[in-house]
Every structure is written in C-alpha cells, then in structure tokens.
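Objective 1b: paired records.
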Amino acid sequence: MTNIFSLKNKTAIVTGALGLLGKKHCEALAEAGANVVVADMDEAASEKFAASLGEQHGGLKVDVTSELSLKTARDKILTRYGSIDILVNNAAINDMFENPGMAKELSAFENYPLDAFKKSLDVNVTGVFLASQVFGTVMAEQGSGSIINIASTYGIVGPDQSIYRNECGEQTFYKSPVYPVTKGAVVNFTRFLAAYWGSKGVRVNTLSPGGVENSQNEFFVQNYSAKTLLGRMAQPTDYQGALVFLASDASAYMTGANLVVDGGWTAI
C-alpha cells in the first residue's frame, strides 16, 4: 500500500504556499517524495522555505492573478524538473480587517466593500482558473496529472454567524459574503474541469477543510468546537493525509469529487 501513496519523481506546485496550511501542504508532498515548488508572492521567503524542505525543492514568486507570472513559473518548472504532475490551488484571501474596531461594521453584508469583494474574486476564483489553465494544460498534454482545489466547508454550507459572538453575546465579526461565494465557485469549477479533462488523464478534485485552530479568541474556539462531531478545531497537520491521497495514485479512480475533512461540521 505504501507505493500507491508515493509521489517519487512527481513535481508538485503549491500556490499560496507560505500560509499556515500552504506550508503543511508543501511538507506533506515533500515527505511523500515529490519535488515541491513553493509558490507565493515573496520570492526570497519562498526560496528559503523550499530550501528547508531539501535541496531538490524550489521557491518561486507567483502571482496567481497574472497570466504572465504563471507562465513564467511554468517555464522555469519545466526547465528544472521536466514535468508538472500536481497542482494545489491553495492561494486565497480570507478577510482580515486592519482596524479590529471596524471589523463588525465592515464585515456586515450591508456594508461590505465592493473593492474587497472584487479582490477576493480575483484571487480565489480567477486565480484558480488561471493556475489550472496554465499548469493543467501541461498535464493534459503529457496525459496525466492531479489538480487539487482547496475550498472550505463554507463552500458547502452557509456561515453560522453565531460562532462569532463572544461570552457576552456580542457579535464581534461577521463571516463576510465573498469567502463562501468564492469557495462555492471553486467546488463547481472542480466539477467542470474534471469533466473537461477526464479523457486527458487529468484528475481534478476539491479538498474542503474545516476551521484550523490558530490563536483565535477562546470564545470562538469553544463555539466552533461545539459544532463539530469531534469536538475540536483542526490542527494544521490534519489535512496532510487527505492531500497526499488526492495527489497520489491512492485516489487514481477519483475525480470531480469534494473531499470534506471538517471534523463532522457539515454532517449534521
């Protein structure tokens, strides 16, 4: 069974690779044997993190909203490794407001800024489209490959705004409209691309993670955990096995699917 999970001699690119989960995705792919391309906006940091994984890995500056940036990265990857076998579309914007005191007001649907909506659409949806087009075309031409689109439980169900209420019952923040909109689009884009490239040997699946514990307020961690069947938020490493499964031959007969790993959040 070990062999079907092996990614030896495979080349994998992870977008948004310097984020909390992006780094864990890279580590998992590297441990499974892949040559990992760490792709993010900070070239020096990408190269440094890639070097920490091992000398065979590389870091590149990649802007997923720029076709030129993606094509430049594609050419560099093919020159060095000769193939592109795995694409993890991980780059995404998740709302952060510079002024915490304004978070409640700005995150409310009635006030949500149009510019913020458009920016997230550009990265979370257009970025997935462009990266899949540029790197996936290489896979289609070589007759094999695995594309993994990172979505979210909020691409499946609507946000429960009550989990953002503190111990006093005050709403501290609203999950804004754009994140669920974009992640829902990613889930259905996966189905389109799986149907389009199935005959070319390119598998396309979604990985939908739940919330990750990352120094949030204690009331939020408790509220979130109470809604999961396992009674906790995810740890950053909880998605590594699922990612390697989707990248490897262990999921060879799986395409167009949405693998939900959320501790049971969406089960009830």
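Objective 1b, second protein:
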Amino acid sequence: MTTITVCTTCRQPALREAKEGAPCGEALLAAVREAAEGAESVSVRGTACLMGCEHGCNIAISGTGKLTYVLGSFAPGKEAAAGIVEYAQGHASSDSGAVPFRQWPQAIKGHFVARIPPLDDPAPDLG
C-alpha cells in the first residue's frame, strides 16, 4: 500500500502572505481523494504542514520499506491530482518505490523536492 499525504495548510507562494480564503492544500486534498477513488493500492490522507512552504502545495508519497518522495509546487486541480495518483500507483507496484522516468505522468515532472530512503534500509544503492 502506498500513501499519499497532502499538506492541508499549504498555500501557493502568491497567496501565502494574504492568508485569505481556505489553504490551497485543502483543495488539492479533495482533488487527490476524488482521483484516488477505486485505486486499491493507494490511500490518501491530509496533514497540517509538511514544512515545504517554498514549494506549496506539497505532497508526500510513501510506503513501508520503500522510498518516500516529497513533491511540491502543485496547483490544486484534476490534472495534478490524476498525475499524483498515477505516480503513487507506480510507487505501489514497485518493490523499492522507484518509478522509471518513462512512466512518470507529465503532471508530476518538475515537482520533485526530495527522495528519502526507507528507514529499514539506510543506504540503498539506487544508482
């Protein structure tokens, strides 16, 4: 099982200072939940603050014993949500969590912020 964690307090840079209206992260969470309906290998949850404010809106894709990926700079919407879920499904089907570049949906390219090794394998050789 792969989990998509969406930062619910994220605001895109242009909206961060004004703090008017609901955070963009809430809209992204709703869109990702909708896109993940029926995706059996993916679960979705929200959390307050992934501490990636410079990259808002942020998400993390993780699974037990697998690489965790942090992605950011998303605009909430169906296209971003569909790409996030598609990538998460690839993560779920991969033993390590790595998804070959040729399988990345266009909607997530250029959004990667960090790749974190699994805790049970502190020094994986991923090339």
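The first strand starts at residue 2 and ends at 7. Residues 78-93 form the longest helix (16 residues).
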